[in-house]
Design a protein that fits this description.
Structural class: mainly alpha
Strand content: 5-15%
Radius of gyration: 15 Å
Number of domains: 1
Distance between the termini: 22 Å
Number of helices: 6
Order of helices and strands: EHHHHHHE
Number of strands: 2
Amino acid sequence: MPANSQIKLALMAASLYIVVEGEDPGFDIFVNGRSLARNEEALDRLAATLRITPLLDFFSADRNSMALLLEQGTGKPEWAQNLPQPQWYSPADGLATVRALIAFLTGSPGAIGSETLIVLSELREYERVLRKTADYGLRWHLAASWR
């Protein structure tokens, strides 16, 4: 995970969601992302084992996601004033990570214990959105929400 986005997601009811470049990408980008946030450390270790980019390497804070965090009572207003420009990523890079995780977890259904099936379901949601993002020629990044 990049140094500027060191976040401990497991401390709160967090969700990792996909932000697609532009105001309205023209397709549904909803993903749940709660079990992915809960299992972020296990997925990070799995990514290292598989030698793939960890999901949280695709994290980037932008003004909209920071405004949402402030609305939810998380974060400090001065953070939103000093944000770097959001980082955007190729959907192909995200798909490589997501598909490798899906392939491994499908073949190892106990890899994350009782959470494996829900993690797989959310990874498939990510795959659907990233496929559409690629089809539309857009870029993406992950953001986090706490509730």
